[in-house]
Predict the structure.
Amino acid sequence: MNDEPRWLTAEEQLVWRSYIEAATLLEDHLDRQLQRDAGMPHVYYGLLVKLAESPRQRLRMTELAKYAKITRSRLSHAIARLEKNGWVRREDCPSDKRGQFAILTDEGYEVLRRTAPGHVNAVRQAVFDRLTPEQQKSLGEIMRIVAEGLQPSEAGADLPWLR
């Protein structure tokens, strides 16, 4: 039995480090744009977008944590900040006394409406304008494969939104 790790090849190491560098720089780029334009980090913007896309602009907190791929504690903190800004409100779930809904307010929708053009421009400039249509398709396929592999469906999986 060989306990030696499967070390990355030189080529794999280059790919891995390029991915880490690009992901870090992209998240920083989007955070700076959203902080400048709306006073919020990228993760908060994503929460507002998901609420805007949901029926009646509301979603159970557990579903919102699953979508955002964050812990329930981090989501609770984010929603508290968004509530303080008047962009989201919470409402108890009538069928589950422990459950809560996050609901996008009119003010939150207006912030999204004003911020979306600058955000989509930042995404387009950072990613899509730099890639050919074939590269865009490949990137999407690759990221779906990676994401699917990191979201096991078996019971007891250690996923952020379950913590």
Remarks:
- The beta strands are 58-60, 88-93, 96-104.
- The two ends are 35 Å apart (CA to CA).
